């Protein structure tokens, strides 16, 4: 898709691509700023190349305005999600408690996996799944 965006940008030219610049920059910005563990470095390089191409095509000033608007929009979305999560914690404490229990359980499992990878002879005790007990409502 990044190659397609770059090709369309070159094909349309400077004047016809300017109205679509924020739309094109949104996925490129998201890929550049993502910090996933299994992120593909070729995608990051490709997005950087397309951004450089756009910068040369439309000029630094127009590109900077569009890029800053995309950046601002992404930051606003992130802040909105954080705010909603905080409000949900207050509004629905039972859901928040379940989420917290799940997070702690995952953290413990991760710790056990890490210990096992560092010391192969050591086997951490695993939580045995009891279907009915797990389904019961914790009070």
UniProtKB/TrEMBL annotation:
Any one GO CC term of the record: small-subunit processome
Pfam short name (any one): UTP20_C
Signal peptide range: none
Superkingdom as given in the UniProt entry: Eukaryota
Span of domain U3 small nucleolar RNA-associated protein 20 C-terminal: 1-116
InterPro entries from the UniProt entry: SSU_processome_comp_20 (IPR052575), UTP20_C (IPR057525)
Protein name per Swiss-Prot or TrEMBL: UTP20 protein
Organism: Chaetops frenatus
Gene for this chain: Utp20
